[in-house]
């Protein structure tokens, strides 16, 4: 068995080396074999399955292109994230992907990278710079799809608990959708608001939600538009014996989320999601196009899908692999494409 594994590893290494020696077919410089491309992925958030799948998708796309991908990240340490950009600049990378972060701490480091001639793209952080394409889930639609499922389930009338942390761009956009929904549907009433990104997310948010459940017993729905926050709500409901009383609506999806949704008596009613691995791949393709001098739109939006508990149960889905098999439209995102950029042949990214 060990011999077989070594042979497979050697073949994989040979394949990557061959790509680098020959370059990508019909690719512009420097992807035509003139040099080895080195990209830095600078991350603010590393906790949670979404973030792990995003990184896996980015790595898979880099591997397909024979690119060296160096990943920097320290969970929710904004100053460390800024410092990582300067480390990447000093390493002489060819391009930088900035994954999440705070606008106020990332604008200057990103600008300094551009000044050194290093292209930058950003995922889920607004860097206030027209030279930096912004990659994002369609967060307004993510929020709206999840809330529309709530509206349907409650016939437009629900007493809602809300988990929200301001200052995080995707959550701010989902909050804008919630604000609009409350105006459009006066029967959707927000009764309480909590939220923290203190680690571990689920445990810390569960503690806050449990306090709300004691003070606001009339709540019958919860909107937690990030799955790690939703897990906190689920945990609070389980510990408070209230899983039959309140339904939960969220954004994002993972194997753990699916398992929680399909469990008997689960309060997790629906989630709107994109494929995080596909977004990671899009991020790598986008920075490669920038390095090659090709045009990109200022905003690259990733369209979401709504998954209800009923849909997932009826499809017999228990993990992300099965989800991708049963819902193939979820797999591939045709953004930042080019004829010379290879994509995953399995259609997963």
UniProtKB/TrEMBL annotation:
It comes from Denitrovibrio acetiphilus (strain DSM 12809 / NBRC 114555 / N2460). This is Periplasmic binding protein/LacI transcriptional regulator. PANTHER family: D-ALLOSE-BINDING PERIPLASMIC PROTEIN-RELATED. The keyword NADP does not apply. Residues 1-21 form the signal peptide. SUPFAM superfamilies: Periplasmic binding protein-like I. InterPro entries: Peripla_BP_I, SBP_2_dom. GO terms for molecular function: carbohydrate binding. Its main location: other. One of its GO terms (cellular component) is cell envelope. Belongs to the bacterial solute-binding protein 2 family. Residues 45-294 form the Periplasmic binding protein domain. It is found in: Cell envelope. CDD domains: PBP1_methylthioribose_binding-like (cd06305). Coiled coil: none annotated. Keywords: Signal.
């Amino acid at each position: 068995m060990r011999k077989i594994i070594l042979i497979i590893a050697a073949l994989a290494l040979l394949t990557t080396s061959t790509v680098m020696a020959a370059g990508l077919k019909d690719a512009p410089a420097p992807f035509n074999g003139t040099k080895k491309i080195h990209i830095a992925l600078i991350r603010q958030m590393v906790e949670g399955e979404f973030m792990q799948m995003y990184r896996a998708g980015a790595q898979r796309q880099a591997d397909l292109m024979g690119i060296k991908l160096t990943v920097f990240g320290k969970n929710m340490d904004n100053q460390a994230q800024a410092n990582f950009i300067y480390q990447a600049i000093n390493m002489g990378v060819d391009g930088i992907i900035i994954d999440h972060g705070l606008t106020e701490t990332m604008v200057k480091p990103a600008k300094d990278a551009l000044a050194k001639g290093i292209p930058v793209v950003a995922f889920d952080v607004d860097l206030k710079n027209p030279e930096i394409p912004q990659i994002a889930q369609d967060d307004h639609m993510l929020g709206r799809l999840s809330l529309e499922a709530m509206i349907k389930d409650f016939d437009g009338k629900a007493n809602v608990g809300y988990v929200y942390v301001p200052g995080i761009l995707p959550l701010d956009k989902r909050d804008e959708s919630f604000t609009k929904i409350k105006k459009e549907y006066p029967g959707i009433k927000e009764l309480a608001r909590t939220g923290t990104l203190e680690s571990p997310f689920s445990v810390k948010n569960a503690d806050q939600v449990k306090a709300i459940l004691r003070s606001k017993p009339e709540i019958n729905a919860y909107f937690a538009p990030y799955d790690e926050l939703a897990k906190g709500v689920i945990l609070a409901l389980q510990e408070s014996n209230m899983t039959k009383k309140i339904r939960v609506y969220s954004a994002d999806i993972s194997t753990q989320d699916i398992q929680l949704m399909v469990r008997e008596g689960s309060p997790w009613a629906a989630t709107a999601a994109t494929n995080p691995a596909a977004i990671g791949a899009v991020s790598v393709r986008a920075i490669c196009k920038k390095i090659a001098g090709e045009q990109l739109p200022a905003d690259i939006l990733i369209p979401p899908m709504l998954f209800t508990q009923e849909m997932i149960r009826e499809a017999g889905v228990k993990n992300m692999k099965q989800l991708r098999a049963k819902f193939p439209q979820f797999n591939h995102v045709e953004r930042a494409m080019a004829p010379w950029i290879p994509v995953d042949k399995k259609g997963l990214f």
